[in-house]
Amino acid sequence: MDQKKKIDYKTIDLLLDRLRNRIGARYKQVKVNGELCYLLPNGVVFTFSRPQGFNSIIVEYADNINEANGYNYEDGCQFPLDWGEDKIFEAMVREIENEAI
Question: What is the pLDDT of residues 30-43, one digit of tens each?
Answer without folding.
Answer: 999 999 999 999 99
